[in-house]
Amino acid sequence: VMAHKELETIVVASKVKAALREQGVNVGEGTIEALNSMAHWYIVQAALRAKANGRKTVRPHDIILMEAYK
Predict the structure, then answer these.
(1) 27 with 15: CB under 8 angstroms?
(2) Which of 3, 7, 43, 53 has the fewest C-beta atoms lying within 10 Å of its C-beta?
(3) Handedness of CA 47, 53, 54, 57 (dihedral sign)
(4) For residue 62, which of 47, 30, 8, 2 has the smallest C-alpha distance?
C-alpha cells in the first residue's frame, strides 16, 4: 500500500464504530484510518497471491484471515 498517498476510504466508519461499541469499547482517533489501511493491505496481498498463482480472479483463500473470535 502506498505510504504517502491518501487511501480511499473503503470501510464503513459507522458500521465499524457500531461493531466496536457492541464489543464494549470506544473508538479512538485514527482507528478507522488504521482499519482502512489494513483493508487496503489485504486487497493488495490477495491480488498478488492470485497473480502469483496465474489467476486474475481473487478467491477467498487468497485472503489470509485468522479464525474469527466469537
Answers:
(1) no
(2) 3
(3) negative
(4) 47
